[in-house]
Amino acid sequence: MSGTPHAVLAEGLRKTYGPTRALDGFDLAVPEGTVCGLLGPNGAGKTTAVRILATLLRADGGRATVAGFDVTRQAEQVRYRIGLTGQYAAVDDALTGVQNLQMFGRLFHLSKAAARARAEELLDRFGLTGAAHRKAGTYSGGMKRRLDLAAGLVLAPRVLFLDEPTTGLDPRNRNEVWSVVRSLVAGGTTVLLTTQYLDEADQLADRIAVMDAGRVIAEGTPAELKARIGGDQVDVVLRDATHLSEVAALLSRVTDGTPETDEDGFRVSAPVTGRAAALTGILRALDTAGIEVEDVAVRRPTLDEVFLRLTGRPTDEVTA
Amino acid sequence: MSTLPAPVIPTTPAARFRYAVADGWVVARRYLTHWVQEPGRIVAGLVFPGMMVLLFGYVFGSAMQVPGGGNYREFLMPGLFAMTMAMGIAVTVTAVVSDTSRGITDRFRSLPMARSAVVTGRSIADMVNSLLDLVVLLLCGLLVGWQWHNGPGSALAAVGLLLLLRFALVWVGIYLGLILPSPEAVTVVLAPVYPLTMIANTFVSPQQMPSWLGTLAEWNPLSATVTATRELFGNAGPAAGGSWVAENAMLMAVVWPAVLIAVFLPLSVRRYRRLSH
């Protein structure tokens, strides 16, 4: 099995809930030792995909292997080799940190002594030794997530599934979780991470798969994907709505993408390549046309924009 | 990373069984630890039956008449024992729903533990807890003058019947816990449990109720257990000459729980398996 080049391999996975096609021909290949970011809006099927790969859910069609074992026929073998951290911190609030990890160790069939040693080792690694004998219910959000991550790592899994690991965390706690994930990857673990945040995928993932309506619609390194949607984004903000269409026309001439107009915010946005040159060109054109602006700024595209470019519709239409 | 012992993957049926028992015990220990760490829960669980002893034994008890004569508190205690067993279903349902809604059930399902351990662990913990409840309540009964009159053998048989009822309700509770969508729904589903424990022979004899309600009360599975434990403890009960169910209470105190287990144990297992569909 060690000859398998892919830690996660999914081919044509399908899953329907009544009339809803949660997964509709989902394909994914994650090479060993890499981080794959599964990116998409709510309802795109990210969680369904992870649940099938983590043996929690049975697919209606298609096949998948994790660490070389079939997720349906060899589910138990898969479970010995994966860790799963879901959208909730699935630890027992009434147990202490060390009790939680010992319990999970025992359920991985470690001996009592080994479970205890492993619990202490993980608490130390996640900076929770000081809180080892406190109930998990008293932990902060970030500490709880770290304990939850530790629980997924009891057996040093070959593949770690992280389903929106930082949803609901503040930036400081988010950074804590990110640094833990980075250290795991440095240790050789393969990670499949779902997220709604482009910057999270950007920070952690070697490759990103963008999902929509139950399938992967684009796949590549973060740089490739950004290049594909036109790299940076320029925003021109006006004082009022009078010159909006004029500026839109001007931007479509100076940049080579199609501008988006936000009528309520008096803002026109367009994708640009080459930040400095584009900015100079736009400012010169605005000056020539004699249009006064509130603000001009170049920034990274948001997930909404990536999504809009890839699918032709904004994320909230999918969510609704 | 330090040396991590390789896990042993059970292959033979005997090894699988050993792991199923061990895993079930780990899960049960988790719940028992909850009770040790939050003794308030045990106290809260006992305040209610304690209040009932005071309320019905002393406040209403003076106006209560036991058919065929006899001490009302002797009549009352077996009713309260069975009622406490029945109310235990709330503990089961609440625990199952809370684990499912907080992702803990999913985490267990992603581990290579025995599939059965989640439910067996739950039922072991509930039974241990119920046995404790029952012992404390028996002591309460002795304090207010209740006692058993037919020797320790019959008394133990009565305790056995009470625990059998609880065991049957564990499976009803696990099933309800698995089908309920949220902790909020639990309150709604559990609301009728309390009145249902009273439309029985717990506090008054069904013979004193309007005939339609009396029939309903006699057919309440709780009534069979209550009558049977009254007989086994030798406590005053309704005079003979009731309906068929009342006459065959001893049989029905085994049949009712057996039927509940036969229906809800497979349903719970099926429902648990269907979490992956």
TrEMBL record, chain A:
Matches recorded under Pfam families: ABC_tran (PF00005), DrrA1-3_C (PF13732)
Annotated GO CC locations: plasma membrane
EC class: translocase
Subcellular localization(s) per the UniProt record: Cell membrane
Stretches assigned to the ABC transporter domain: 8-238
One Gene Ontology MF term: ATP hydrolysis activity
UniProt keyword list: Antibiotic resistance, ATP-binding, Cell membrane, Membrane, Nucleotide-binding, Translocase, Transport
Record EC number: 7.6.2.2
This protein's record includes keyword Hydrolase: no
Predominant place of localization: membrane
Lipid bilayer topology: Peripheral membrane protein
Biological process annotations from GO: daunorubicin transport; doxorubicin transport; response to antibiotic
Keyword presence, Lipoprotein: no
Family, similarity comment: Belongs to the ABC transporter superfamily. Drug exporter-1 (DrugE1) (TC 3.A.1.105) family.
The protein's name: ABC-type xenobiotic transporter
From TrEMBL, chain B:
Top-level taxon: Bacteria
The keyword Transmembrane appears for this protein: yes
Keywords: Antibiotic resistance, Cell membrane, Membrane, Transmembrane, Transmembrane helix, Transport
Transmembrane segments: 42-63, 75-97, 131-149, 155-178, 185-204, 249-269
Domain ABC transmembrane type-2: 40-275
Pfam families: ABC2_membrane (PF01061)
Any one Gene Ontology BP term: response to antibiotic
GO cellular component: ATP-binding cassette (ABC) transporter complex
PROSITE patterns in UniProt: ABC_TM2
Bilayer topology annotation: Multi-pass membrane protein
InterPro entries: ABC2_TM (IPR013525), ABC2_TM_bact-type (IPR047817), ABC_2_transport (IPR000412), Nod_factor_ABC_transporter (IPR051784)
Subcellular location(s) of the protein: Cell membrane; Membrane
Sample GO molecular function, one term: ABC-type transporter activity
Primary location group: membrane
Family: Belongs to the ABC-2 integral membrane protein family.
Protein name per Swiss-Prot or TrEMBL: Transport permease protein
Annotated organism of origin: Streptomyces harbinensis
